[in-house]
Structure formats: C-alpha cells, structure tokens
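Format notes (please read before filing issues)

Several people have asked whether sequences and structure tokens are stored in separate files. They are not. Every record keeps both together, in the order shown below: the sequence lines, then the token lines. Line labels are part of the format and must not be stripped during preprocessing.
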Amino acid sequence: MTAPRPAPLLIADDVSLDFLNTIASPAGAPIEWLASGEDLLAWLTQTGLVPDDVVAAMRRATKPAELDGVAAQARDLREWFRSFVRAHKGAPLTPAALSQLAPLNQLLARDERYDALTPDPAGGGGLALETRRRWREPTALLLPIAHAMAELIATADFTRVKACENPSCTLVFHDKSHRGGRRWCSMAVCGNRAKQAAHRHRVKAAAS
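Then the structure lines:
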C-alpha cells in the first residue's frame, strides 16, 4: 500500500520559494506536489494565494484536463524560476539580472488586477482600498505566483536567499533570522541530521 503523500512544505519564509519547494525529497524519494490541476488548486488554497471562492469556481467551471495543463505550465514556471534563484542566491541582485526576467515580465503583463473601494475590513466604519483580480481563464491561476516571484526579486536581499546546507537537500529559503545565520531548511529535519552526524564524527574521533 502506498504511503500517503505528506503535506506540501511551507518552510521557506517566502511563498515564491515555497513554490520551488513543491518538488523535494524530504524522505529520500522525490515528491511532486503539483502533479495535477487538483494539486495546484490545493497548493494555492493552502498558501492563500488564491481566494477559496475563486478556487471553487475554477474547479466547477474548468475541465480537469485543462487544469492539468495549467499545472504543467506551473511546473515549467517553477523550473525556470529555480534556475534564476540558483544563479543569483547569496549575492545582491543588480540591473543586469533584468535581461533574464523577460518570461516573468511577459506573464505579469497578462495580469488584470484593479483597485476597488470597499468597507473597512477592520470594521471601523470607514472605507478601504482593496486590490482585486479578474479571473477570466484558468491560466490566471499562475498570476499570483508570478507576482510573489516579482515581489521577492524586487524587495528581498538576495544575499539572504539560500539553499539548505545539507548536500542531499534541495530546499531553498529566505533567511529572515536576525543575524542571517540560518543554515538549514528546517532544524527539525536537516539541522538535527547535521547535529547527529557531527556527534557521531566526534565520538568516532575520540575513540580512535
């Protein structure tokens, strides 16, 4: 009997990097969390990138095969962004990087976001300005992911974008620790493994 797939990993401190981590090998064997359109909808719901009512409407109005096609586009987008992050992590971004970002700008140009005045969600009796998006087609599901990527590129200190120091781990994260000393995707996983390995090495060295 196949073991149930674990929940997607949301440990990167940035949703666009969590998107890169939707394929990983936390227990040795690779796990793909975006294998289907339904997987994509579930991940967008879990991360809050797409409102629940929009996900429900997409599920009702779109054929599964069409959603599967959008998931395939999401995987392509993920691997393109992985190449960019791997090339630039750990160093400041410069304007020269813009030449590599044409695919992302092309995707962002398809966005149909607009502002609308709404009642104050805090309940203060006033008004608030809310950004909304028109969801005209299933591929619009890629747009909040693209926006999250652009937000990271435009605002993050890329010297703090890191890969886990465990050589067998593929996970990346945004180091938001005070001193910038985060080394592991998760102390509960790779951090503890590294500590155990170091302890075994010390015991072996002391015994020799």
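For reference, the curators noted about this record: The chain has a mean pLDDT of 90. Residues 64-88 form the longest helix (25 residues).
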